[in-house]
Design brief:
The chain is an alpha+beta fold and about 210 residues long. It is built from six helices and ten strands; from the N terminus they run βααββαβαβαβββαββ. The strands form two sheets. A seven-stranded mixed beta sheet has the order 1-2-3-4-5-7-6. It has a three-stranded antiparallel beta sheet with strand order 8-10-9. A hairpin with a 3-residue loop joins β6 and β7. α1 crosses α2 and α4 crosses α5.
């Protein structure tokens, strides 16, 4: 699978793909769309790749370096003090006709590889809507862990997920299986448990060290 770095010449195609994916969603709350200006900044930062079929952009995934003073910085949710070492796993779009080929996870692996090679970051953070099972499974496959469940983006319930570059999140004890819809338990226990994987409809939590 070949990935191409996207640049400003691809900006209109990125927006068009985002709009097509968003318009096709049954539950539009699963996707927090970005503006053209936000995509332009992501392009300038250099962590955005795409997959093409001929000349058509069929998939894209990106990462974003947030400013330390950014409102609702995910580092605050994850308990990370050095915000300069944080990058976000941002948005992913795949054309409906190209789903089921593993594009989302393969693009994620490629971007994580680039982040590791840069040496500039210690933590990759992202948010996922609790009911977005495909996105949750993608993040778990890539090594992300749920470190907090809270309200973000004006009152929307979200998992904050974290991938540490140098080492894993420390956990211990017996696993606790929590149904993915039991977000009340997750919010009540965010300070004591980390969600490390998913089995069927259950998220597997372990006690924090």
């Amino acid at each position: 699978m070949e990935f191409r770095n996207l640049d400003m010449n691809d900006l209109e195609a990125i927006i068009a793909l985002q709009n097509a994916v968003y318009d096709a969603l049954e539950d539009r709350e699963v996707l927090q769309t970005l503006t053209k200006e936000e995509f332009a900044e992501i392009i300038r930062q250099g962590y955005i790749i795409g997959v093409f079929k001929g000349d058509a952009l069929i998939a894209t995934r990106s990462m974003y370096i947030p400013a330390a003073e950014e409102l609702e910085h995910l580092a605050d949710d994850a308990g990370i003090s050095d915000k300069s070492r944080v990058i976000y796993s941002e948005i992913t779009f795949i054309d409906s006709a190209s789903r089921g080929r593993g594009l989302q996870t393969e693009m994620g692996r490629e971007l994580i590889r680039r982040v590791r090679e840069s040496g500039d970051f210690d933590h990759i953070l992202t948010t996922v809507m609790p009911g977005n099972i495909p996105s949750l499974k993608d993040k778990f496959r890539l090594g992300f862990k749920i470190v907090k469940t809270t309200y973000k983006y004006g009152g929307k319930k979200r998992h904050v997920m974290q991938l540490n570059i140098p080492e894993e999140n420390g956990t211990s004890g017996e696993p606790v299986k929590v149904h993915y819809t039991d977000t009340d338990w997750m919010m009540d226990n965010s300070n004591h448990y980390i969600g490390k994987s998913m089995s069927d409809e259950y998220i597997i939590y372990y006690k924090r060290n």
